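Reopening: LysR family transcriptional regulator YnfL still failing for me.
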Amino acid sequence: MDLRRLKYFVTVVELGSFSRAAAHLCISQPPLSQRIQELENEMGGELIDRRSRPLKTTVAGALIYQQAKEILQRTEQMQGYAQRMFHPEVNVIKIGFVSANFHAHLASVVRRFIQLCPEVEVQVVEMNSIQQVEALRAGHIDIGIGRINVVADDIEQITLYQEQLIAVLPQTHPRAKRGCAVSLATFNGGRFIIYTNQKKTEPCR
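Support: Ran it again with your exact input. Result attached.
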């Protein structure tokens, strides 16, 4: 069984045209048609109804199409597993993050990346912003998602989004009833509830 023939067949079925499939695969149409014919000879009958526009599969072709997709997907997974085993340092991305930043939007971005690059394992490491800077310099993480502005020549910073800080105060606090913006210096020397300094590594799935 030639995997290339299966790939060509799946592409023709999904695009509904030999010409579009050839352009997508970056080959000319005659060799594409020849590979499909070879697959049909191997299977023992027509898989594509060439009289239909757009092209459609025959009854047998529809069954072969589903099986071919599964074979190609499993082949890609197998290749990904092998790459992770033989080259683990290349196929792992470690992301440092502040837990408050890992909300639904960022989680969806990570999930989308995993879907697009299933051969890459994504590991998330919970750490504060200062720890992320140190981990980046030490090579312990590849990306940091923090909450501070990092001014350093050896670290590239991209602003993903901006948010407003809100002070939550007890009613008895002298600043609680002002109802206006206050400087952080106002709370200098005060007591705060903050995130732990402990870090935890988890693989994303």
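Strands lie at 48-49, 56-57, 92-97, 121-126, 143-145, 200-203. If you still see a failure, please send the error message rather than a screenshot.
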